[in-house]
C-alpha cells in the first residue's frame, strides 16, 4: 500500500439480538508499530470510542450503529477500515441464550401476504440475525430474482406478472435459513368486484376477531439439554420463530428454555 499500512483483515457486519456480546476484528501491517482507534456512528454523529485502542473491539449490542477502525503508524500516516454495521434487534432478546447460538442465520421477520392493484408499489420485508450479517436473496415461484438482494423487496409499479409466491433466503458462512412463503395477488383497479371475495373477506374477519380476543397467553418451552443426546440447536430457533408468530396473532408469549 502507498501509505505503508495494509489492512489484512477487515471487520464484518453482524445482526444480533439486543444485549448480545460480539467482537469486531481489524488487523493491519505496517513498516512501524501501529496504533488502533475505533469510532462509532449513530444517526450521523461519529465519535471516538474512549479506550477502544485494540485490534479487537468487544461490544454489548444496545442499538444499531456503524463502526470503523483507524490505524496509525509512527509517521502519522492513517488509514480507516471499512465501515461495518452492528444491527440490533430489540424484540428478540428473550428465548435466545447467546451461548447456544453459533451465529447461523435466524429469521426474525417473515414477509406477509399482499393484495394490491396493478401499478401500485409492491413491498415485502424480512429480517434475519446472523454473525456475520446474512445476505438476502428473494425468489418468486422458485425463480431467483436477480435484483432483489435486500431485506426489503421493492417493486415501484407492480404488474400482473409480479403475482406469485415469494420467499427469501438469508445466508452467511454458517448456513442458510428460508422465510415462510407468501402469496402476492395483483388485480385490476377497484378489485375485488362488488360483493367482494367472500372467502378472503371471511378469513380476514376471522383473523380480526382472533386478534380482538384478549388474555391469550402462550407458554413455549424449548428443551435443549438432554442427558444422553448432544445439545440441539433447533429448539432455540423454533421457540424464537414460534414466539414471533404467536405475538403477531395477539398472544402474550412466555419463552423458556430447558
From TrEMBL:
Q: Where is the Caspase family p20 domain?
A: 214-258
**GO MF term list:** cysteine-type endopeptidase activity
Report the residue ranges that make up the Ig-like domain in this protein: 5-81, 105-173
Q: Which GO terms describe its biological process?
A: proteolysis
* Origin superkingdom: Eukaryota
Supply the SMART domains for this chain.
IG, IGc2
From the Swiss-Prot or TrEMBL record, give the protein name.
MALT1 protein
